[in-house]
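Appendix B, example 12.
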Amino acid sequence: MTMATTMRGERNRLLETRWYYIVLVTAAIAVSYFDRQTISVAIAAIQHVIPISEQQFSYLQTAFLLAYAVMYVAGGRLLDRIGTRRGFLLIMLWWSLACALHGFARNFTWLLGMRFLLGMGEGGAFPAATRVVAEWMPREQRSTAMGLINAGTAFGSVLAPPLIGALILNTGWRSVFFVAGAIGMAWTLWWTLSYRNNPATLTMSTQDARLLAEKLSLREIVGVRSVQVLVFAKFMSDSAWFFLLFWLPKYLYDARGFDIKHVSYYAWIPYAASGVGSFLGGYFSAQLLR
């Protein structure tokens, strides 16, 4: 009876730890989407100080996405080599600093460079999040966990328009980037104090998959049929998602005549819907797998 109670208590503690780490990672993903929204929501205020044409605005987003795409691959390799705890810490420190440095911009070139650096940091976020899920969650719960983490993208995007709008109206656009960077730094402290790598809880199949991935070259990984299917799906979904993410606020400013206050009122709505879809998609995937 005592042994059974002890075992039950250990299982409950393990369950709580697993989901605590998922919440921790969800918060990081929310911060990342808040950070990448900063310039889109603040662009109207920035243009009063730094002239930015439509073409130049597109270059800012392209710089972010180029670095982001490269670091999806490179960030995953980095995490495989130095581990989840150190890797995620380094990634968050990098992108938080890059975000804060936007606030010192005096010209378009500075903003372009900082957007590139921000993309480099944020490109490693989802590989790191996926590693946390693989290390801690049993297979039948992973899609639910990833659904919750994906909902974090919407949470950050929902918060961005009203909070950024309030900061601009009260303290100016530069403070947006300083506050966003500070939030990221606070998360790194939370992560450092809370997260521990836990390879002992990995399933044998996950350990085998990690060992195999470390031996395979990038060309061999890309040659795997399931990888190609997932890359294609990601290409089709993200092209639409990032277009909405980066251009919706500017469309509301330029085409619909919204001011900062009205963008903060309405720009969050599509992202709220995506959050519901992200969580439900993960939950129903888990149900189908069962």
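The two ends are 31 Å apart (CA to CA). The chain has a mean pLDDT of 84.
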